[in-house]
Design goal:
Elements: E1 2-5, H1 11-20, E2 33-37, E3 44-53, E4 59-67, H2 76-90, E5 95-100, H3 103-107, E6 112-114, H4 121-133, E7 139-144, H5 154-159
Parallel strand pairs: 4-5
Antiparallel strand pairs: 1-2, 2-3, 3-4, 5-7, 6-7
GO molecular function, one term: acyltransferase activity, transferring groups other than amino-acyl groups
Biased composition (Acidic residues): 165-180
Region (Disordered): 159-193
Length: 193
């Protein structure tokens, strides 16, 4: 499992999954996203976005974070968030904001609640938009980039992630894994025995 920058060819996939999960796609640009990819199957399993708000001062916001259902609970989202925070740090941001209806998840990494009135003006406007579109329970959080911390065991879980939490040792390959119905299959090279 690894996390990489999104490419143009990922745009349709991203938009489909953002819509399916009911996530914010305002001012969508695929180049702002990162994607978690399973190395064995090359399947895209999670994503997230670092949105830069221009102005004085510039701000950055984590948004559009999602993990496909069979891959949840295995550190995929944590590593997407880690990559986005590292990118923010590399781009010179000291603080990263997010507006979410799942604050408990992000608080595990060191994000702290921000009172509505303490959010920068642009994010306060976005908060109102998100509350009207996503859910009234959306709140603001922030983290200093050097305070980000992965919970114990998350890195190992991410390295060994598999769909539905299945590991290689849990599954023995069968003809069905390759789309073959063993009861009706015919074989091109029959030895006649």
């Amino acid at each position: 499992m690894y996390v990489r920058d999104a490419k143009n060819r990922d745009e349709a996939w991203l938009l489909d999954h953002i819509e399916a999960m009911g996530l914010d796609d305002m001012a969508f640009r695929s180049r702002d996203y990162v994607i978690a990819v399973d190395e064995e199957s090359n399947e895209r399993v999670g994503f997230g976005r670092l949105r830069i708000h221009k102005g004085d001062p510039e701000l950055c916001e984590l948004t559009g974070i999602g993990v496909l259902e069979p891959w949840r609970g295995q550190g995929v989202g944590a590593h997407v968030i880690e990559r986005l925070v590292e990118t923010a740090d590399a781009e010179g941001f000291e603080t990263v904001y997010t507006l979410t209806d799942e604050p408990g998840y992000l608080e595990r990494f060191g994000f702290e609640p921000v009172a509505d009135e303490d959010l920068p003006d642009r994010l306060r406007e976005r908060l109102s938009e998100k509350r009207s579109v996503v859910d009234e329970s959306v709140v603001g959080l922030r983290i200093e980039v050097d305070a980000f911390d992965l919970p114990a065991g998350t890195r190992e879980a991410f390295k060994n992630a598999a769909a539905d939490g299945e590991t290689d040792s849990d599954h023995e390959e069968s003809p069905e894994d390759f789309g073959i119905d063993p009861d009706t299959a015919t074989y091109k090279y029959d030895t006649g025995s």
